[in-house]
């Protein structure tokens, strides 16, 4: 083990038997404060022993300490042995505890990037807290973005009949991804503007996964509809997302809407989206 982190490791691994009081009448748990700092520091030490102690720390009945452990796990290098063993606790914490802990768990799951976590993150899109919904959308996008090249290869690879297991796995992944994209697109109509914006930006990053067809067309329509919400407050932001996703298909759809809308206010929102779709990209 790295000697530079040994003291922090020992502190965090220690059971809480030595609670101390700072001054008489002030119940300050110094041991807990030190363990919080230790969890924070251990996020820079990518070792299997650290993963295990952080995993155990996530199970303690201390939300603040749990959150530090979750954040520390998200900072470890992705090839650290034992990280997959933390997915179970993280998926559980995503649906319990404080909103801050749920947000931290969603963020960590996005960083760890395991495709199997998509369905659980999808469930958290219904969380009562908009910050949890926003972070869950972004985490799903982060996972999908990390696996884009692999997923695209599987979509276009010729799968020999001799390996049906691989074919079935690829089909399961494709179904999971389609469900995830659909769930993310539904958040475009979220009652919270921040969630809607997070969904738009996330979907725009995944344009390579959205082959031409019903899924892409559906997301374009949902982005446009989101541009009308709240008296058009997000029209330009949705237009920017449309430009990143598919400017050609988006402009065609917007022009069609322009010809069918009877309200001058709604036409103005469409024109704002079109303006963003046709806006030249900023030079690097």
TrEMBL record:
The protein, known as: HEAT repeat domain-containing protein
Species the sequence originates in: hydrothermal vent metagenome
Leader peptide range in chain numbering: none
One Pfam family hit: HEAT_2
